Amino acid sequence: MSDQTITRVAVDIYGNTYKMAGYESAGHMRLVATMVDDKMREIQRTNPSLDTAKLAVLTAVNTMHDYLKVKEQMEQLEQELKQIKGGLNG
Amino acid sequence: MSDQTITRVAVDIYGNTYKMAGYESAGHMRLVATMVDDKMREIQRTNPSLDTAKLAVLTAVNTMHDYLKVKEQMEQLEQELKQIKGGLNG
C-alpha cells in the first residue's frame, strides 16, 4: 500500500530524461520506465526506420493491448471467484 | 478466442495513420487505437508544451503503470482463487 508522500524521480527513456512524480515508490516508477524503454528498443529493432514519435505511439499501442488482455483475464477470474463464492454460500 | 486469420486495419492516432496487423479483431485494434489517442489528448491537455514523441512516451508510461497495477490485482485474485480451491479440496 502506498502512502500519500509524492515521490519524484528522473528516468531515462530512449535517450530522453523524464521527471516523474507520483504516489508510487521510486522503484515502481523506475520499473515502469525501464519496461517502456525496453519495449521501444524492441519495436525499433523490427522497425528501424520509424521516428521516435511513431515508435513511442506503437509502444503505447502495444502496452494498451497488453493492458486490455490482462484486464479481460482479471474479469474472467473475478467472475470465476464470484461463482465459487456464490456456490459456497448457496 | 481469436482464429489465425491476420486482420489488417489502418487507424488514426494523434493525427497520424498507422497500419496495424494482428490476430485480434478489427474492433479490438480500433479500440486500442482509440484508447491511446484519447490518453495522448488527455495528457496533452495538462502538458500543452510537450512534443508528440514525449507525449507518446508519457502515454506509454501511463499505460504501462495501469498494466502493472491490473497485473498485480490479477495475481492477488489468482492467489485467492488458489487458496479457495485448495480449501475445497483439502
TrEMBL record, chains A, B:
Q: Which GO terms describe its cellular component?
A: cell division site; cell septum; cytosol
* Highest taxon listed in the record's lineage: Bacteria
InterPro entries for this protein: Bac_CellDiv_Activator, Cell_div_ZapA-like, Cell_div_ZapA-like_sf
Please classify the protein's predominant subcellular localization into one broad category: cytoplasm
UniProt cross-references to Gene3D superfamilies, sorted A to Z: 6.10.250.790
Which stretches are annotated as coiled coil? 60-87
Keyword match Membrane: no
* Keyword terms, alphabetized: Cell cycle, Cell division, Coiled coil, Cytoplasm, Septation
Q: Where in the cell is it found?
A: Cytoplasm
Q: GO:BP terms for this protein?
A: division septum assembly; FtsZ-dependent cytokinesis; septin ring assembly
Q: Name one Pfam family in it.
A: ZapA
What does this chain do?
Activator of cell division through the inhibition of FtsZ GTPase activity, therefore promoting FtsZ assembly into bundles of protofilaments necessary for the formation of the division Z ring. It is recruited early at mid-cell but it is not essential for cell division.
What is said about its interaction partners and assembly?
Answer: Homodimer. Interacts with FtsZ.
Protein's recorded name: Cell division protein ZapA
Organism lineage: Bacteria, Bacillati, Bacillota, Bacilli, Bacillales
